[in-house]
Amino acid sequence: MCVLEVRDMDSQYVWKNQKKLRTGYTTGSCAAGAAKAAVQMLLGEETVGQVKLRTPKGVTLYLDVERIVRNPGGVVCAIQKDSGDDPDVTDGVYVYAKVEKTEEKGVKIRGGEGIGIVTRKGLEQAVGEPAINRIPRQMIREAVEGVCSSYGYEKGISVVISIPEGTELARRTFNPRLGIEGGISVLGTTGIVEPMSEQALVDTIYAQMSVIKSGGYEVCYAVPGNYGSDFLSDTWGYQGKAAVKCSNYIGETIDIAVRLGMKGLLFAGHIGKLIKVAAGIMNTHSQQADGRFEILAAHAALAGARTEVIREIMGSVTTAEALARMSEEKLLEPAMKTIMAKMEDHLEKRAGDSLEIGAVMFSPKYGILGMTRKAVKLSEEVKK
Questions:
Q1: Measuring CA to CA, which of 37, 162, 287, 368 is 20 to 30 A from 222?
Q2: Rg (alpha carbons) of the chain, rounded to whole number
Q3: What sections of 166-249 are H helices per DSSP?
Q4: Distance CA 185, CA 177 (A)
Q5: Which tens digits make up the pLDDT trace of 190-243?
């Protein structure tokens, strides 16, 4: 499917969690490669079996060109996406480019079957435009213009990008939540897919919050996962129009809120994730840090827990087990007060002066365990 031109073979791989993982290439690279090959066949009138593409990251790809169809005045071809060892829903899909000559100069890029349409403000493209992001558009345009220049062609080229499986795949992405309807997005800032890329998740958080802000909200919720979403719905009757799913990226979510000029941010999460913030842990993934039981034990000790109880809390397997023991000893309420105070301190240090910030933490059995001082105020501002 593809050969990478590299001086060092290890540059085809990245190391994640002590594993050597193979890199891949983005839908943007596929679209640019397909467009370049199709224009070469349109202007050169010869079949192109492989196309060379230089990515923004500086890696050169040799992409196999497949599913070639010649139409009167146009050419269609496809490049198959290879996500490497990244668990990407688009792995293996075919990205098509249909090109035709036009009298109007320049390269006109449009979306075809399976490419989503932007329906809400705040994304890279305007409402009504196909969800082909800025860097992929630039890659497509530069690839097409390079071919036109080499053939001395001075008129225009129409490029239609399509991913026939995109409509179905979109249901497994964040696109419906972001306001991208009818298909998937053509993405990629470097042209290369790095397995288990944290940046891709952070970019999704940015896109979600940008859409929320463009929708008129200056204060929003952030929830690590479905537990937080369910809590907002079941406990506070909120349906989630202004809730960002931040996964483990507490610190990055705060940074994004500051960058976008949000006025307030309220985290709502299960104790299993959110309690780590009380120790200043801003990436709550278990492979980054844990500390749940150390935090609970330390604050239980501050509340007067006996040594025996502290040991039992430290030896707990789940937070539910630790909470039950603290409740039996009537330590839960005082410990949660000091935990929420530390959590507030760490959140405010990360947020700085320009962003009001707070948190509410809960468990399925005990409900709301604690709230920072500004939590209720921030929630009311979101509801307005």
A1: 287
A2: 25
A3: 166-169, 175-178, 198-214, 226-236
A4: 13
A5: 888 776 556 777 888 898 899 999 888 999 999 987 777 777 777 777 756 788
Pairing of strands 219-223, 243-245: parallel
Give the global pTM. Answer: 0.67
Domain spans, the chain: 2-193, 198-383
- The rounded distance, in Å, linking the Cα atoms of 13 and 195 is 9
pLDDT tens digits along 298-351? 999 999 999 999 999 999 888 999 999 999 999 999 999 999 999 999 999 999
In which residue are the tokens 């919050």 written?
209
Cα–Cα dist 131/210, whole Å? 15
Other Cβ atoms closer than 10 A to 131: 27
